[in-house]
UniProtKB/TrEMBL annotation:
Keywords: Magnesium, Metal-binding, Transferase. PANTHER family: ALL TRANS-POLYPRENYL-DIPHOSPHATE SYNTHASE PDSS1 (PTHR12001:SF69), GERANYLGERANYL PYROPHOSPHATE SYNTHASE (PTHR12001). This is Octaprenyl diphosphate synthase. Its EC number is 2.5.1.90. The keyword Metal-binding applies. It is an enzyme of class 2 (transferase). Supplies octaprenyl diphosphate, the precursor for the side chain of the isoprenoid quinones ubiquinone and menaquinone. SUPFAM superfamilies: Terpenoid synthases. Its cofactor is Mg(2+). It comes from Shinella kummerowiae. One of its GO terms (biological process) is isoprenoid biosynthetic process. It catalyses: 5 isopentenyl diphosphate + (2E,6E)-farnesyl diphosphate = all-trans-octaprenyl diphosphate + 5 diphosphate. InterPro entries: Isoprenoid_synthase_dom_sf, Polyprenyl_synt, Polyprenyl_synt_CS.
Amino acid sequence: MGVVIPLEEGKNKQASVKPLVDLTKADMERVNQLILSKAGSDVQMIPEVANHLISSGGKRLRPMLTLAAAAMFGYDGDHHIKLATSVEFMHTATLLHDDVVDESDLRRGKSTARMIWGNQASVLVGDFLLGQAFKMMVEVGSLEALDVLSTAATVIAEGEVLQLSVAKNMETTEDDYLQVIRAKTAALFAAAAEVGPIIANTSKAERNALKSYGMNLGLAFQLVDDALDYGGKAADLGKNTGDDFREGKITLPVILAWRRGTAEDRAFWRDAIEGGQSDDANLERAFGLITRYGGLTDTIARAQHYGMIARDALAPLPASPWKNALLEVIDFSIARVS
């Protein structure tokens, strides 16, 4: 069982992604149509595997960021549709690959693609989606947008490898952890937000504002996800609570509990994480230690810190419904633990 973490600011409990959903609804319908079209193939298994994950109920926050970031600067062409679809395909490919690397059984409440079609199909269909994403980027014809998204793809892969290198290593520092989530999660958020102003031909300052917003929103989002693994519900996570513990992932709640604990506590963590003794009894003890040493509340405090940086990044931009919706996404991302 997890521990529900109350937020200090009651207003955050009302935060919703709905304003962003409503503003981007028409464009997201076009994105969804393009997703279905580009996920198609004469090879029957490709659309089967792709659509299994694509239709599984994710909020598609990242492509909505691309659409909103373009619209808030008055963009009125069609390129944002292809870029948003590229962003979603990059994200979907990452999930397919992640589930293989992490040996995950559940994704968004459903069996993972690897559990149904196997690891090889999951990896190869992920590669197919990446290929389709890059084809659409080329069709847009913006070298700057292509550079931003292709760089993000490289950084994400580096983050995956870095996470592997620190897995089951209790000497992992908070700085190491932040480096992993900055690459694995925040880089795509940043790229998704940055390509909007690029195709809208905005100033360098406006482009950097959206990039900073996306990067810090992504950090906050992942910090909350990692707290939810020890303090949430499977329905909210899209996976089983405690999966990070079972997989030996070193996330911030664990790092804080390890560093603040006694020698006996640290011996437990070594046995559980490095020694693979991650049964239900040890998971319960891990919950207890993380709660005792403030691992959850301080992880959320870190998320709120990055959320404030994201908010400040947008502060110089003119007021608009788009800006308000993007600001509310910050509160929504953090309020998921309430």
